[in-house]
Amino acid sequence: MKIDNSKFEGIDAETKIYQYRGFSEKERGLRGDFIFEKFIETRDIIYFFNLNEVKYVDNKHLDELKLKKGEVYITKNENDEIISIVINETTLNPVTNEIIETGTYFLSPENKIKVSAFSDRGIFKQAIAPK
Fold first, then answer.
1. How far apart are CA 41 and CA 120, in angstroms?
2. What is the CA radius of gyration of the chain?
3. pTM exceeding 0.85
């Protein structure tokens, strides 16, 4: 984090710049594309189990995946069944609040799962406008 102090026409301003270096130095990008069998949700974490990799950048097999809630997007069909889940994850340096890395996970259920199986806490569900 960088703090920039300035003065203009007698007004003092303090600007906090959280990311002033480019992402070129940071690890970022796609983390994986998975099909999951089941999940467990807590207040701030979602666990996905029995994963099958469609594509994984680090070429590692995962049996389970633990992701923090926050930027979680669920897409559904007209029967309120989940088509896909996209989770963007950002890791900050706890001291400087600088972004260390970002990653995106794409998940699809192996079996039919209703959107209502997920809570509304930290999850953005697709809304379909009435006809």
1. 11
2. 19
3. no
- Tens digit of each residue's pLDDT (9 = 90 or more) over 40-65: 999 889 999 998 887 655 666 778 88
DSSP 3-state of 118 = coil
**Phi, then psi, of 130 in degrees rounded to 5:** -65, 150
Length of the chain equals 131
CB 13 within 8 A of CB 6: yes
CA distances from 126 to 44, 84, 106, 117 (A): 20, 11, 15, 14
DSSP 3-state of 103:
strand
Give me the mean pLDDT over the 64-81 stretch: 89
Average pLDDT value for the chain = 80
Which amino acid makes up residue 74?
A: I
Is residue 129 over pLDDT 70? no
For 106, phi and psi rounded to 5 degrees?
Answer: -115, 125
Among residues 30, 32, 28, 1, which one has the least CA distance to residue 91? 28
Measure the CA dihedral 111/116/118/122, to 10°.
140
- Residue pair 47/66 in contact by the 8 Å Cβ criterion: yes
